[in-house]
């Protein structure tokens, strides 16, 4: 496993840099003062993983679970002939490697797609707000993975791309990392192809078609979905709802008016 460099910063700077991760966690369930303090203490000893370095390695023992504070990471499987499949992506506020059994072994490699800042996920006392947040996060992870089964098994190429971008948009919205319908996305078209079971040529063709149709723009690492609600209706996508509270929060985010591009 990659040796992580430790960064210790003043408390105000720590919370400011990691505000998106805190915002996402709090969106999953209101955090009380004690749990916010647990998170601040963990974030004060954050670690950095360089781009393209592993966070977890397939078949190797897993360390304690970690919270991704900044950057993007991905769960990936590389076949013997070099073919690559991205199985899921980790965004700020996501928990990596949370398990409930002894001596856990990584079932997939997780790599840093950008420079990543992580901290140890603090233990959640029984019945605490943090325990509920972790549980909702795990339920959402499962819901997104089930969505990927439908995405790869039943959607056509254009629908897969739209569905994937809507998922990223929804998840970044929880962290306050969207502006209107736009968000930063450090993925290449080749990476998108390896996530969606398509060829890079096919992805490029579909992206160009979506641009001509006025559905999206993708330039310099920033994606703009011109009308996310219309795209969702066209595909038949519904936001994952795993608790009543989370569903209400997602609905509030979705109802925010888009800013003009």
What does this entry look like structurally?
43% of the residues lie in helices and 19% in strands. It is of the alpha+beta class and 261 residues long. It has two domains: 1-132, Jelly Rolls (Sandwich); 151-254, Arc Repressor Mutant, subunit A (Orthogonal Bundle). The strands form three sheets. A five-stranded antiparallel sheet has the order 1-2-9-4-7. A hairpin with a 2-residue loop joins β11 and β12 (222-225). α5 crosses α8 (228-235) and α6 packs across α7. It starts with a strand and ends in a 7-residue tail after the last helix. Mean pLDDT is 90; it is low at 253-261.
**Derived structural class:** alpha+beta
Distance between the termini: 42 Å
Major β-sheet strand ordering: 1-2-9-4-7
Query: How many discrete structural domains?
Result: 2
Largest sheet: 5 strands, antiparallel
Q: Report low-confidence residues grouped into runs of 5 or more.
A: 253-261
Tell me the radius of gyration.
18 Å
Per CATH, the architecture of the largest domain is: Sandwich
Strand fraction equals 15-25%
- What is the assigned CATH homologous superfamily of the largest domain? Jelly Rolls
Would you tell me which CATH topology of the largest domain applies? Jelly Rolls
CATH top-level class of the largest domain: Mainly Beta
- Extended strand count: 12
Shape: globular
Order of helices and strands: EHHHEEEEEEEEHHEHHEEHH
Task: Assign a percent range to the helix content.
Answer: 40-55%
How would you state the average pLDDT, rounded?
90
Helical element count?
Answer: 9
């Amino acid at each position: 496993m990659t040796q992580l460099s430790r960064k210790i910063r003043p408390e105000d700077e720590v919370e400011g840099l990691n505000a998106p991760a805190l915002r996402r966690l709090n969106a999953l369930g209101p955090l009380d003062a004690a749990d916010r303090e647990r998170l601040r203490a963990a974030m004060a000893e954050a670690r950095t993983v360089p781009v393209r370095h592993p966070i977890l390695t397939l078949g190797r023992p897993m360390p304690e679970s970690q919270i991704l504070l900044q950057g993007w990471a991905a769960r990936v499987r590389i076949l013997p002939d070099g073919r690559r499949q991205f199985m899921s992506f980790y965004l700020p506020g996501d928990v990596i490697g949370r398990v409930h059994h002894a001596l856990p072994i990584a079932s997939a490699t997780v790599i840093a797609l950008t420079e990543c800042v992580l901290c140890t996920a603090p233990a959640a006392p029984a019945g605490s707000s943090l325990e509920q947040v972790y549980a909702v996060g795990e339920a959402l992870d499962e819901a997104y993975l089930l969505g990927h089964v439908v995405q790869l098994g039943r959607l056509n190429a254009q629908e897969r791309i739209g569905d994937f971008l809507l998922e990223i948009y929804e998840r970044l919205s929880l962290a306050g990392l969207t502006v209107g319908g736009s968000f930063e996305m450090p993925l290449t078209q080749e990476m998108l192809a390896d996530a969606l079971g398509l060829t890079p040529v096919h992805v490029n063709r579909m992206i160009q078609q979506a641009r001509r149709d006025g559905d999206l723009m993708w330039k310099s690492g920033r994606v703009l979905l011109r009308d996310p609600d219309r795209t969702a209706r066209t595909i038949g996508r519904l936001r994952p709802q795993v608790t009543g509270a989370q569903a209400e929060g997602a609905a509030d985010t979705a109802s925010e008016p888009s800013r003009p591009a």
